[in-house]
Design a protein that fits this description.
single chain, 37% helix, alpha+beta
Length: 862
């Protein structure tokens, strides 16, 4: 296109045919050309944004925000080009761009503010309604105590408002933002460095006097209520914890803390919001740093004789109606981290009968020191293989679990502890993160019938399924945490134990296998959120599985095979871990002000700057008005250069043609042209394809629109000069060897720009297609179909969501004509296919049929 414009511009400057100065036309044509280029760039940006949202692709906020700003800039340029082209007739369009752009920016960059509250709130004051003030962990403790009427340790929450004030008091906010700016989660060294700097600054900062006094007074009040000095469990309760994202194990918990160490413990828990794994998790799950404020809950330390975790449903199979309990002697901190083996029980919900009891060898236990801190000590010999729970304790736990599940109305993940006087406390209650993949469940049922060939030895059989699924890859046997950064993409990690530290691996590994661990641990919860097949508690995986060996992990059936067992592996839908995060939701909301196209019919009253509701509307309106301005230039311009005339093509769209020179013949006294009057070589080739005898513009086989398609076509065929209901007119800018074709058929937009001359080096075709009337999934399938056809025709192709761009260069003119002929057939055959492409597997069939010449997509009954 640029090559042709250079030649044409030189001709316009020197052309004084009939004594007419063409400079006015030249200036308008320059603005028109710039507008078309900006139009295509803007539509490509919209396609990019739709691609990451509707194709469920992970992205960074920085990427999305940069794209949005670029789109607003392109929309502004389009409005300015239109005003230059029209002599300033559309100033209100610039106002519309600014108004819509400001709304989008407000949506994207709205900072979360925390309401002014008390610095400290007692557990007795809390319920779920306080989650925005004290985070999910503290709010749920209040809910359990005040509304479910079950015992929790007494204590208090230091609010999110207190956290915000602490950062402000120490001027930490700008420092933190500077450290985290442009941070790439795929650069672990940079994350660790930024994390260390921020945490050091936080832990060294003093508390403002009112906050320090409020914390110490609240601790004193709890001690007075209990009638004795107590030690505290100081736990994270960030404002986004235990919500759509669990943040399981990502922030710190400090146990058995004395009053004198409470202030420092508070700062350490606050600092943990910026540890490396929390930063990675937050960014991967689609959270802004400012979305997560650290409230801290301080509760009476329970000196547990036994403790653990229970689920009120099997997280891998909702049809399995059981309560699952993991337990250990002493404190369960090591159990939830995944570094020790646990006793495991399953209890049928209806009968309350224990249906499974697996007792671990419990060699060590974590206990409270009388004065402060923890100690790990050996479990007495007689207790190591004994059940850590009695039958009565199990039934009490089940009773509490079912009462809480009924109260919350959903499956729960519950932490609990039984003290030395046999009193049961609920330490945490949150929604259970489950592996929601019904397709996997169906695949499991099918593959149970598949026989595994004997040449795939079983390396591991047993363990526990933390997250279902089947994957194959090479085993990476992890020996130390220092090797984490070196683990390559696509590995199946084999480790001694689970750990929340491994969350930073989940973006690049296929699966996880451990010697020790529990399905109720933090790592198991996070694996289910990321849909990473995980097998824990195998006992010997690190010893048996060779490093670098290709293996198949069948976490569902708890087996590991040597080699790749293709019979078990089926393609899994990609998982976007940030799909429910606030960044993703914010972008979806912003996209509603960007992508929908409301201005369809130029004849309607709302087709105006005031009627533009989205940036896509701005682009659509400007394109239509630019075409009108360009194709209705008659003052002072030679009739052969600049005048738009209708073409009687007998197609279901109105075609207007403007001749740049030797592109058509306009007969004297006739205000329209026939196809035989077209001289432009590329336009004649395109029209040949659009008029192909096997095309039927009246209908598309397989599409049922209640007769609408035939009504559209017939209305145009009765009067070829009348614009049909399929959209605005199509525009063709032509010369003897040049064509720029723009068409809008309803909701989709197509352009073809081509030069077809004697010099092979000058010849090219560019094709652009976007949009449709169906949902984004169906539109994207039509784009896939077009993309596949173009590739098979020799085009270099780019496709994102419902946008396709193809390019073909340096072919002989006869071959370019053949390609244009086929493009004409393509436009006619796929124009309504987005309405019927409900499944990906249909795409290949339609591609094959088109290339076989079945442009009506008729089914051969034979």
């Amino acid at each position: 296109m640029k090559r042709f414009f250079k030649r044409f511009r030189k001709r316009l400057i020197s052309d004084k045919r009939h004594g007419t100065d063409q400079s006015g036309f030249k200036e308008k044509y320059e603005s028109f050309k710039q507008l078309l280029a900006a139009n295509n760039r803007a539509l490509e940006i919209i396609a990019d944004l739709e691609h990451i949202i509707y194709e469920n692709k992970p992205f960074t906020f920085l990427y999305a925000a940069t794209k949005v700003e670029a789109l607003i800039a392109e929309s502004t340029a389009i409005a300015m080009d239109l005003n230059r082209l029209s002599g300033g007739q559309y100033e209100k369009l610039l106002e519309a761009v600014n108004a819509i752009g400001n709304k989008i920016r407000l949506e994207l960059f709205r900072r979360k503010r925390f309401e002014e509250t008390s610095l400290v709130l007692q557990i007795e004051q809390l319920s779920l309604e306080n989650a925005s003030e004290v985070g999910g962990k503290a709010a749920n403790l209040g809910e359990v105590f005040n509304r479910a009427n079950l015992p929790v340790p007494l204590g208090f929450a230091i609010t999110a408002y207190a956290y915000e004030q602490f950062l402000r008091f120490n001027n930490l906010t700008d420092f933190i933002n500077g450290q985290l700016k442009d941070l790439d989660i795929n650069d672990p060294d940079r994350i660790v460095s930024a994390s260390r700097e921020i945490q050091n600054r936080i832990t060294a900062a003093p508390l403002q006097s009112d906050l320090e006094h409020a914390i110490l007074q609240a601790a004193c009040d709890v001690s007075e209520t209990l009638g004795k000095p107590i030690l505290f469990s100081v736990r994270s309760s960030a404002t986004s914890e235990d919500s759509e994202a669990s943040f399981a194990g990502q922030h710190s918990t400090l146990l058995n803390i004395s009053e004198k160490n409470l202030i420092q413990a508070y700062k350490e828990v606050v600092a943990s919001i910026f540890n490396a794994r929390a930063i990675f998790y937050r960014r991967s799950k689609g959270y802004h740093d400012q979305d997560v404020a650290m409230s801290v809950v301080c509760i009476m330390m329970v000196d547990a004789s036994v403790s653990g975790v229970m689920y009120t449903l099997d997280p891998n199979d909702s049809r399995h109606s059981v309560v699952m309990i993991s337990s250990v002697w002493g404190l369960a901190a090591l159990a939830v981290e995944g570094s020790v083996s646990t006793d495991f029980f399953q209890i049928d919900k209806k009968s309350k009968r224990i249906v499974l009891s697996q007792l671990a060898s419990k060699q060590s236990q974590l206990r409270c020191r009388p004065e402060d801190g923890l100690i790990e000590e050996a479990v007495p010999e007689q207790l190591r293989s004994a059940s850590s729970l009695t039958e009565n304790q199990i039934h009490q736990l089940v009773d509490y679990a079912l009462r809480l599940e009924k109260h919350y109305g959903q499956p729960l993940d519950i932490e609990w502890a039984i003290d030395r006087s046999d009193k049961l406390f609920i330490l945490q209650s949150r929604p259970l993160k489950r592996h929601k993949n019904s397709a996997d469940e169906e695949r499991i049922a099918e593959s149970d019938e598949i026989g595994i060939p004997g040449d795939f030895p079983i390396l591991i059989e047993g363990g526990a399924t933390a997250c279902e699924g089947v994957v194959a890859g090479f085993a990476y046997v992890l020996e130390t945490d220092h090797m984490l950064h070196h683990i390559p993409q696509g590995a199946i990690v084999v480790a001694g134990q689970t750990s929340p530290r491994y969350v930073q691996l989940l973006g690049r590994i296929k699966g996880f296998i451990t010697d020790v661990g529990s399905v109720t641990g933090h790592m198991a919860s996070v694996a289910r959120e990321f849909h990473i097949p995980t097998l824990v508690g195998t006992g010997s995986a690190t010893r048996i599985i060779p490093h670098g060996e290709t293996i198949t992990l069948d976490a569902t059936r708890r087996k590991v095979y040597q080699g790749t067992v293709k019979a078990l592996i089926k393609e899994r839908a990609p998982v976007n871990p940030m799909a429910n995060g606030p960044i993703y939701q914010t972008m979806k909301s912003a996209l509603r002000k960007i992508a929908p196209l409301n201005l369809i019919d130029p004849k309607k009253e709302n087709f105006s700057p005031e009627g533009c509701q989205t940036l896509h509307d701005i682009i659509r309106f400007a394109h239509e008005m630019a075409m009108r301005e360009m194709f209705h230039i008659t003052d002072g311009v030679d009739p052969e250069v600049g005048t738009a005339v209708p073409l009687k093509a007998y197609l279901p769209l109105r075609l207007l043609v403007i001749d740049l020179g030797n592109g058509m013949v306009l007969k004297s006294g006739i205000d329209s042209i026939e196809i035989e009057d077209i001289r432009s070589i590329p336009f004649k080739a395109l029209l040949r394809g659009m008029k192909h005898e096997k095309l039927d513009w009246h209908r598309n086989v397989g599409i049922s629109l209640g007769g609408l398609t035939s009504i559209i076509a017939e209305s145009v065929f009765r009067d070829p000069m009348k614009e049909g209901r399929m959209g605005g007119p199509g525009y063709a800018i032509v010369a003897d060897h040049y064509l720029n074709f723009n068409s809008r058929l309803g909701y989709h937009f197509a352009t073809i720009d081509t030069y077809c001359g004697e010099s092979v080096n000058d010849n090219y075709v560019t094709f652009y297609f976007k949009g449709g009337a169906a949902d984004i999934g169906r539109r994207s399938r039509r784009a896939m179909l077009i993309s596949g056809i173009l590739k098979r025709l020799g085009f270099k192709v780019e496709q994102k969501a419902d946008m396709v761009r193809g390019e073909l260069k340096k072919y002989q003119c006869t071959i370019v004509e053949e390609k244009l002929d086929l493009l004409g057939r393509l436009l006619g055959s796929v124009r309504l296919l987005d309405m019927v492409l409900s499944e990906d597997r249909q795409v290949e069939w339609y591609q094959d049929q088109f290339l076989r010449g079945n442009y009506r997509f008729e089914i051969d009954e034979e």
